[in-house]
Amino acid sequence: MGILHLSIELTLDLIALISGIILIFRAKDNYPKLYWGIIAACIGLMFSWENIGWLTIVTDTPEYNFIDLLNIEKMIKWYALANIVALFPIASLSPGYLNHFRIFTFLLPPIITITVGICYLGFNGVITPIYSLNEIIPNVNNTDVKLRICIFLLSVLTPLFILIYAIFSTKTYRRINKNMHLFIGFLFLFLGIYTLFTLSINEFIFNLFGITAIVFTVLFSVLYLRHENPFSDHISMVYNTGKEMLHIENSPQPLPLFSTIETYLKEKHPYTDQLYNMKDLAKSLNEKEHDISMAIKSQGFSGFREYINCNRLEYFRRLAVENPGKSMKELMFASGFSSRATFYRNFSDKYGVSPSKFLENQNNEG
Predict the structure, then answer these.
(1) How far, in Å, are 144, 151, 281 from residue 201 at the CA level?
(2) Mean pLDDT across the chain, nearest whole number?
(3) Residue 235 and residue 318: Cα distance in Å, rounded?
(4) Structural contact between residues 162 and 87, judged by C-beta atoms closer than 8 angstroms
(5) Are the C-beta atoms of 130 and 70 separated by less than 8 Å?
């Protein structure tokens, strides 16, 4: 691996680290965004450390210390991260669903398996050398080989189960979008690369896994910086092309507090203040911020910011009808938006046209 290759990868590592830190500070009550920021920052930091080490060696062909097949340490590292990342589709489609108990339930198999693997390495440590697939069957009666095979199968099947559960879940107010398909496609690609790397000793696969991991991290970090929930769309925020609006069966019921929030916002329009936040809303309703957040998520919104922006978009349309002479900029600020880019992106996603085109059509109709 040359210096140029390492420099490019190190640049991506630093981008992942910086974007992760930004996400952590911007997440607010959007916990998936917060957790993705933590993951991105950790991956960026870990990969940066490794690649800086290679650059200090200053060699075109670094020699990797490859080890035998079904390596427990390698499988444990994958198993822990893969199952956490596989939870993001569920968190995206069902905001607020993954409480501490449900997260623990989904992660219980890897927690038990990883604990057993660590205990075996720590208290026994006998590892049968296996350097090819042909050596697995003759050694299958060895305790460590049985354990390694079990860990490998679980490390593939458990993330698959979580992904399938997310795809076929119907208790949601959100719809899978193209980014979710891309995300799931990446995870399947990772499963394939991980399988090859676990069952073979291959420098190319090792490098492929590393570069794919960092590209994956940077790509979805950028998407999280642009969107509150890049993997799915709230049904009320999906552009209707003239077809019947999409209805999802068995949708969860919103918490009673949500009706109070809706009534207050429709009557007072406090979100027209660009600095309006959840603390202000909680104070006005004399409720806890956590309860406000959970009520909003019970209606399928990722968090306060996505919900407020949805209200601002509807208010913009109302102002546009009532004030045909005002410019788009005036209407945008009057609706509570402070970022032109955020406004344009959200409006186009929700209504299928740009704000300027919408106002043009509105004036022609008038």
Answers:
(1) 19, 18, 57
(2) 87
(3) 20
(4) yes
(5) yes
d(CA 10, CA 13): 5
- Amino acid identity of 84? I
pLDDT, one tens digit per residue, over 202-260 is 777 877 888 899 999 999 999 999 999 999 988 776 554 344 344 444 556 678 899 99
Are 360 and 366 contacting, i.e. CB atoms less than 8 angstroms apart? no
Number of Cβ within a 10 Å radius of residue 137:
9
pTM more than 0.85: yes
C-alpha closest to that of 80 among 108, 110, 35:
110
Beta bridge partners of 234: 174
Nearest to 122 by CA among 170, 83, 72, 163: 72
Distance CA 303, CA 122 (A): 43
Q: Residue 342: CB partners within 8 Å, gap ≥ 6?
A: 309
Segment 144-158 mean pLDDT: 95
Q: What is d(CA 43, CA 220) in angstroms, rounded to the nearest whole number? A: 13
Ordered DSSP codes for 86-155: HTHHHHHHSTT---HHHHHHHHHHHHHHHHHHHHHHHHT-------SGGGTGGGTTSHHHHHHHHHHHHH
Q: What is the pLDDT of residue 197?
A: 85
Q: Is the pLDDT of residue 27 over 90?
A: yes
Rg (CA), the chain: 25
Cβ contacts of 255 within 8 Å, gap of 6 or more: 294, 295, 298
* Distance from C-alpha of 129 to C-alpha of 219, rounded to nearest angstrom: 38
| Residue 335, both tokens | 């609706």
Residue 355 to residue 312: CA distance in whole angstroms: 13
The 3-state DSSP class for residue 238 equals coil
Q: Do the beta carbons of residue 174 and residue 233 sit within 8 Å? A: yes
